[in-house]
Amino acid sequence: MNSGFNLRNYLNVVAFIGNVLASYLIGARGVGSAESNEYLSLKYQTLVTPSSFAFAIWGIIFLAQAAFTVAQLLPNKRGTPIVQEGINDFYIGTCICQIVWSYSFGHEFITLSFLAMVGILVMLIKLVKSSHQIEVQEESTLDYFLFRFPFVIHLGWIIVASVVNLNVLFVSWNAVGIVLTVLAVLSLVVILSVATYATWWIKADLTIPLVLAWAMIGISEELKDPKQSIVVQFRDSTVQGVRFFAGFITLVLFILIAARAIKTYVKMKSLSGICGSKSDVEVTVTEKDEEDPSSDYVKV
Asked: Count of domains in the chain?
């Protein structure tokens, strides 16, 4: 579908550039009176703060969204339903909320930063849900990585970031150790629940549970050699207990992911033998989806 540029195409570019600049200048460099994310992460350390290596996922997120920003300008892509109706203005809203988060967190307006994080989460949920309602005939792998993956991986990490930000909020309120411990454990339970739901009851790929498993690895590794603020505030048994729980959740998530992937593969192979073509397989399994929300079809 060839069409001219519209306002949404231009605003997607502006939103991406603005988000990158805010994330780098405020979050990474601490320009002006802002503190860097690294410094504030140490200042507001929690039991569920992942190790620094886990945050490398932002590199993938920004690169994927850079590819989307360019791709949605192409003549045969800029007017497509996935861009105009699926992604819609939700990406622009996501970037605006993330810019607000960068500013508020960098200036230690922690409550405002948490609200901005919730805004990011809501925008991404709406984006992913909306884009998955757009039916695409024979979607290529390239199209998936250009128009779906950048936002699914972002959503996965923002789920983790929202949980961490909530814990940071309580730390900023000087909550007592027992409250922070209970909150940390509940946070891990929430992540496990969301990952299980995303693995078995959402017609999407396995990106979200994989991202959540990555975060669990980061949390477990961080608590192997916790920061001094954690050592001072919590008993070693508490820290190791949370670390063990995070490691256990990681194992459970990988088992769930492997089981879902194997079951989907077997089902697709079985249906391909019955139906013949890939499109027939997708139609058959999609019909099954309407009857069973936990069907094996992973739509990409």
From this structure: 1
Rounded to whole angstroms, how far apart are CA atoms 24 and 18?
A: 10
Q: Residue 249 burial (CB < 10 Å; 0-12/13-18/19+)? A: buried
Predicted local confidence at residue 193, as pLDDT: 96
The mean pLDDT of 258-277, rounded to a whole number, is: 79
- Convert the pLDDT of each residue in 2-27 to its tens digit: 667 899 999 999 999 999 999 999 99
| 170 in a structural domain | yes
Q: Is residue 296 part of a domain?
A: no
Domain membership flag for residue 298: no
The pLDDT tens digits for 58-91 are: 999 999 999 999 999 999 999 999 999 999 999 9
The C-alpha atoms of residue 261 and residue 250 are separated, in whole angstroms, by 16
Closest CA to 104 of 207, 189, 26, 186: 26
Closest CA to 216 of 249, 255, 167: 249
CB-based contacts of 194-199 (< 8 A; 24+ apart in sequence): 194/159, 195/253, 195/256, 196/256, 198/156, 199/253, 199/256, 199/257, 199/260
Total-model pTM? 0.89
Question: What one-letter code names the amino acid at 90?
Answer: F
Domain extent at residue 17 = 7-291
The pLDDT score that the predictor gives to residue 2 is 63
Q: Quick one: which H or E segment has residue 146?
A: helix 141-147
HSE, side-chain direction, 13 A CA sphere, residue 270? 10
Mean pLDDT computed over 144-165:
97
Longest dimension (CA), the chain: 65
- Sign of the torsion formed by the C-alpha atoms of 275, 277, 281 and 286: negative
Residue 281: pLDDT over 70: no
For the chain, helix (H) and strand (E) counts, in that order, are: 13, 0
CB 79 within 8 A of CB 1: yes
User: Is residue 297 situated within a structural domain?
Assistant: no
